[in-house]
Amino acid sequence: MENKIYSTTDYKSFSFFDGNAKIKPTKVNKITESIKKYGLINPIVVDQNGNVIDGQHRLEGCKSLQIAVRYFVKNVENINLVELVRDINSVQKNWNNADIAYAFSIHSPNKDHYKKYLDLIELGINHSTALESTSFLSQGEENHNNNYHKFKNGNLEISDLVYEKVIGLVAALESSSFERKIWNKAHFVRGLLYMNKNVDNFSIKRLFDNYKNHPQKWIKASTYEEHKKSIVKLYNHNNKNPIKVMFG
After folding, report:
1. How confident is the model at residue 3 (pLDDT cuts 50, 70, 90)?
2. Could you give all domains of the chain from N- to C-terminal order, each with its CATH number?
3. Shortest CA distance to 110 belongs to which of 100, 97, 120?
C-alpha cells in the first residue's frame, strides 16, 4: 500500500490521535483558501489504521470544501507513531514549541515535566524565558540544564521545587512596573537571577522600585551582558551602597 496515492471523500475513515498538534482554526482557514485556489497540492500521510501522520489541516480544508482527499499510507507501529509525527513536524518546522511540548506531555517518560512547561507558558512567558529560568533556578539543587536540544528530544526536566520558584518569579515580575516586553526575555531573567545569586545584599525590590520611580534610567538591552549592565545601572541609581559586578 505504501508509495501509492489514494483519493476519497470518506472523511470518517481518517482519525486524529493524542500527541499530534492541535488543530488551529486560523491555519485551517488559510489552507482552505489555498486549496480552493490551487487544489490539494500535497497529499496527506496516514498510517495503516487511518491515523493522520501529516496533513491534519489539509484534511480539514478538504472537508470544508467537500472535495476528495488525496493521501498515501505509511505503515508504522503504534509505539513509534508519535515519535514519527514529532520528527516530521519538527524537521519541517510545522510545529511550534507548544506543539512539541504537547506531544511529549501525552506520550513521554518525561510527560509530567512537559505539562509543567505548558503550565508556565500559559502564564504568558515565552519559550526561552521558560527554559532559562528553569535551568538557572535548578543550579546547585536538581542540577538540571534545560536547553533547546534537551527540550526537543524529550529530556526536559522541571522539578516541583523549580516549578514553584518560576511561578513565584513570574508573579513578582508581573506585579512589578517592568513592562512585559522588557522582562519576558531570557537574557533579562538570566541577568536578574545572576544578580540575586551572586551579588551580596542584592534586593530585587529595590530594582523594581527604581524602575517604578525612574523608568528613564533603564537602558535598552539585547545581549546578556547588556542586560546585566542595565540592571546594575538602574539598581545603583541614588544608591549609597552601589553594587559592583564584573562584566565580560
Report:
1. low
2. 5-94 (3.90.1530), 100-236 (no CATH)
3. 100
